[in-house]
Design brief:
Structural class: mainly beta
Oligomer: single chain
Number of helices: 0
Distance between the termini: 40 Å
Shape: elongated
Mean pLDDT: 97
Low-confidence stretches: none
Strand content: over 45%
Largest sheet: 7 strands, mixed
Order of helices and strands: EEEEEEEEEEE
Radius of gyration: 14 Å
Length: about 120
């Protein structure tokens, strides 16, 4: 059983910062890519940022220059540092990761989400 648990969401004023964390636990061989997605009310889930096991990153255009994704492979944790937050960043933020297993194919998992609310 594999689990992803996010934390760090909350209410912040526009221009403020938050740091999200997502810890992976369970039985797996290793983790490939890890990433963050978000879903605002009435909208589809959208990509925010992603990082490979080697540290290569990519971002949605809407967050480039404001958000930074990083990971601690030793702790199976991915972070999302969010600066200069805007009201349009308000959403439920989900962690996603692809796990490798010794006896089966790689598989992606989602966390339960953490709410980020940015007030104007």
């Amino acid at each position: 059983q594999v689990q992803l648990v996010e934390s760090g969401g909350g209410l912040v004023q526009a221009g403020g910062s938050l740091r999200l964390s997502c810890v992976a636990s369970g039985s797996f061989f290793s983790i490939n890519d890890m990433g963050w997605y978000r879903q605002a009310p009435g909208k589809q889930r959208e990509f925010v940022a992603r990082i490979t096991s080697g540290g290569l990153t990519n971002y949605a255009d809407s967050v480039k220059g404001r958000f930074t994704i990083s990971r601690d492979n030793a702790k199976n944790t991915v972070f999302l540092q969010m600066n200069s937050l805007k009201p349009e960043d308000t959403a439920n933020y989900y962690c996603n990761a692809e796990f490798r297993f010794l006896s089966s194919f790689p598989r992606g998992y989602w966390g339960q989400g953490t709410q980020v609310t940015v007030s104007s």
